Amino acid sequence: MSTTSVVNTVSVVSMVSMTSMTRRIFTGAVTGVLASTWLLGGSALAQPADHYLPSRPDTVSWGWYPLDKPPVLTITSGDTVRVDTLSHAGSTQRENPATWLRDLGVEPEDILPDVIDFWESRDGRPREGRSGHVITGPIAITGAEPGDMLEIQILELTTRAPFGINNTGSGAGVFGSGYPGSRPNDPVRDVETLPHVIHTGMVDDREVALFSDDIHVPLAPFMGIMAVAPTPVLGEPGVDIPGVQASRPPGAFGGNMDVKELTVGSTLYLPVLHPEALFYVGDPHSAQGDGEVSGTAIEQSLTGRFRFILHKDTPIPGPRAENETHYILMGIDLDLDRALQKAVDEVVAFLVAEKGLTPTTAVSLASIAVDFHVAEAVDFTQLVTGKIPKSIFR
């Protein structure tokens, strides 16, 4: 699986305090990373990586994060990995993808062989399918232990097929009966239940979604799911069977966060919960609005290139991220209001630990300078991001 070309390696960093950890996390970690092909208008060449992980039936899981699956790849801190991912849209329906996608207007040559191979393996996955996602992994990081932190630098993201799928329905997404904001007497929306194939391509030197003749949406690819192996607790969101964490709700392990800022040039930080961390990635998207209100984005297969850095003895409570312009903290809860409160708590904790504010002044700054966005509201647990602009700090 390894290539002969090696990109920059980064040594393991050990930190002993929350204050030093946050300083390291949010100080220039993503400077100088390569922009993706879409960002450079299709002109960038794919860069080499230390390892390559394809999306084959034996390297993917369907709808959950197996804790007893042997690693499909083992790496060391500082390694880069190129990973293929598959969208569940077109891969998991009952009908053969060759027929189902053809009837939606997809050319046969645009259907990935990986899609057919996965679809043909569905019947051999009796414990899987707890949710819809197809997830590549796990990747083991040598030496990772609970209490460590895993840094994932997102170096490159490229589309693998010239189309994606978005789904709508009168009872889907924020219109669903299980959505916390729904009420029994709500009117039924006049929205058809349909899969929408959205073709993508280059227009004016930029890759866009060809939504219609008059509407082109610039692509901004990101992985909806990036996760370490979770610690399932029966009765918590997505855990209906002992030891089985469904992939739909995000949590402290990361997972289906659907944070659209996690694109090229950003860095994600996750707590290590099991030996070797066991990293999973999937649910690839090429474009999404905050909220993902229909329940799906443009679900489109991607290839990503990532650098993994292990930070020893650096506990964090859950996922956090940064990009060139913002520190990104996250609040996750079944209730959207509580998710907002938790996001504010995370922002305040960061401002106190890293910037030396008091809790009172941190709340004041959060109210006047920090943007809180609903990253996604359709996956049982709801996720709110608190985006602290780096530009306000001298």
Sheet of most strands: 10 strands, mixed
Classified by CATH, the class is Mainly Beta
Please tell me the overall pLDDT.
Answer: 89
Tell me the β content.
25-35%
How far apart, in Å, are the first and last alpha carbons? Answer: 45 Å
The level of helicity is 10-25%
CATH third-tier fold name: Jelly Rolls
pLDDT < 50 runs, ≥5 residues? 1-44
Structural class by helix and strand composition: alpha+beta
CATH architecture: Sandwich
- Taken from the alpha-carbon principal axes, the silhouette is globular
CATH homologous superfamily caption? Acetamidase/Formamidase-like domains
Q: Radius of gyration, Cα only, in angstroms? A: 20 Å
* Contiguous helical run count: 5
* Count of spatially separate domains: 1
User: How many β-strand runs?
Assistant: 21
| Order of helical and strand elements | EHEEEEHHEEEEEEEEEEEEEEHHEE
Protein model, in words:
The chain is globular and about 60 Å long. A hairpin with a 2-residue loop joins strand 9 and strand 10. The strands form three sheets. Strands 1, 2, 5, 7, 14, 17, 18, 19, 20 and 21 form a ten-stranded mixed sheet that branches. Strands 3, 4, 6, 12, 13, 15 and 16 form a seven-stranded mixed sheet that branches. The protein has a four-stranded antiparallel sheet with strand order 8-9-10-11, with no helix packed on it. By secondary structure, it is of the alpha+beta class. It is built from five helices and 21 strands. It has helices at residues 18-25, 97-103, 113-120, 336-355, 359-369, and strands at residues 13-14, 51-53, 60-62, 73-75, 80-84, 134-141, 149-159, 163-168, 194-203, 206-210, 216-218, 222-228, 254-256, 267-271, 279-287, 298-299, 302-312, 320-322, 326-333, 371-379, 381-389. The protein has one domain (13-317): Jelly Rolls (Sandwich).
